[in-house]
Structure formats: C-alpha cells, structure tokens
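Deliverable D4.2, example record:
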Amino acid sequence: MNTAEPLDHRAAVAAESARFAGLVEGADLSLAVPTCPGWTLADLIRHTGGAQRMFTALVRALVQERPASRGDLRLPEREEDYADWLAAGAAEADRVFAGTDLDAPMWVWGADGHARFWVRRMLFETLVHRFDAERALGLPSAIDPALARDGVDEFLVNLPFAAFFAPGVAELRSAGPVQHIRFASTDTDDEWLVRLRPDGFGLVDGQDGPGQGGPGHGEMTADATVRAGAADLLLLVYGRLDRSAGAVRTSGDEELLQRWSTHSAF
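Output generated by the structure prediction step:
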C-alpha cells in the first residue's frame, strides 16, 4: 500500500498554471490541439482559463447551490494577451484559495462537498490541458507520478457524479451481473477497483484514496485490468492515451474495457 504524503493541491495548481502560461506565451494560438479535436491553442486557453476563473468565483462565494452561469470571465479582446490573462486568473485563484477555509462546506458536482474539491479539480483540469498544449506545440511532456496517482484517484472518485455534463457516464453499468475493472499503477503501487452494477458504478466499498482499498482489495477478482505507470494511467483515463499504447497493458474482458473507454469521456 502506498503511504505517500498528501499533496499540496494549491501549490500544484500554481505550478501547473505557471507552466501552462509559459508554454503559450508568444506561441501561435491558431495551432490545432491533436488531443482536443476541433480546438486550437486559443480555444484551449479560453477553456482552461475560463474554468479556473469560474472555480475561483465559486470558492470565493462558497456557493451552496449550482450556479446558473459561468460569470464574467474577463476574456481579453486580443489573443496575444491570453497568456497574461491565464496567469492573472491563476494568481487570483491562489489568493482566494489562501484566504478560504478549504474545509468549508459548499456546492460541488462531485463526491467531496467542500471548497477543497475545487482546488483539486482545478489542478487536474490545468495539468491535463497543459499536456494538451505541449502536444499542440510538439513539446515533450512529463507528469510527476505523485500528481498522476492523485489525478487518477480524483477522476475515478468523481466520475459517477459527472452524468449531468457528461451524459455517456450514465451508460457505465454492467451488462448483466456485477463486473469489475482494476486500474493498477505500476510505478506507485496503487490500485483502484471499479465495480459496475446494473444500476451504475463506483469504486469498491472502503476505498478512500490512492492505494487505500478495503480488506482483501488486492485479491478481488477483476473482469478486466489496466496496468501502466501513473502518468500514463492518468492520460489513459482522460482519453489522451489509447489502451493499445505500448506503455499500457490490459487483460480480461475487451468488451468491458471498450465500454468503459466509450462512456467515461469527461
């Protein structure tokens, strides 16, 4: 079982945001983003910066119900100002997070009904789109395994709640009897077991975080298994890496794995 120290999500958001803003400073924003079909680099920045500002506004107000709009994103008129806009939004987020009790209860769309949900969500929204920007620019990418393992956990914990904006998630259910998919990180020794039932899905009972499966978790039989390093596993669950990639090993029910890939898009 992995016993790594908890991450400082606020610091990681700041670092990933700075990295992203540095990538796109002076870049050709008309470049296509291969991992986000139909998007240009400008679209990617607008999406990421807009999400960051929306999350920041939610935390600042500690909203108690789902908002009706995204609010004023203060998007610059000129695309050449996008990198500065992205950096300014991240700096504002850091100030708000620093001045907020992140254990305060508030509305979230996922599993953890506290302000800290949005800091963790912002981290992986930013990290994955930083990777997308690197693909657009033809640059190599690196993702820290500790961040990646936390990102896999964040994705799997919250995915069952995502159907209101990702309708395909509602189709993630067993084709009959209960089925299980195991996701295993080969470099951090973490495992997640997802149970698909006829009426829905979720992590197995007793899983509270990376490597924190309940008693006997590692011995439970899975109908399909996916193994990869933590960074590749993160890219896989976010649809940035195909399970046929050389860094990924799969076994078991191929139809179940295909069903997961088809309906887990975020």
